[in-house]
Structure to design on (121 residues):
């Protein structure tokens, strides 16, 4: 994990309205943006989106990343290669949660969690 931020600004050319697709936006609706680098340290190529999922979890938040943004995860990643991009989530509860966790493979034996304190507004 490289960076974490909360914003109402466009992310990689996508607005909150694009994501909400007509649903009501509250004053607390925010993008949560986690910039990550994924590296293939194995001996075989793999497609990251087929091997791992990343959720944003808090007391009031449980979100899957918005797949339309970091589309490089859908391409084969060769051994020794890496990709960097934004995992993007949307929530109305980030400030109430105070702390959220980005979790790879939630509930699995190999689950990995990163604690992400929500920055002040």
């Amino acid at each position: 994990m490289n960076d974490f931020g909360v914003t109402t600004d466009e992310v990689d050319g996508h607005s909150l309205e694009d994501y909400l697709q007509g649903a009501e936006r509250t004053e607390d609706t925010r993008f949560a943006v986690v910039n990550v680098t994924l590296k293939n340290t194995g001996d075989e190529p793999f497609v990251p989106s087929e091997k791992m999922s990343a959720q944003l979890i808090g007391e009031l938040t449980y979100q899957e990343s918005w797949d339309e943004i970091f589309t490089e995860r859908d391409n084969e990643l060769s051994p020794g290669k890496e990709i960097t991009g934004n995992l993007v989530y949307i929530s109305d509860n980030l400030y109430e949660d105070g702390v959220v966790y980005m979790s790879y493979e939630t509930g699995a034996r190999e689950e990995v969690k990163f604690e992400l304190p929500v920055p002040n507004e």
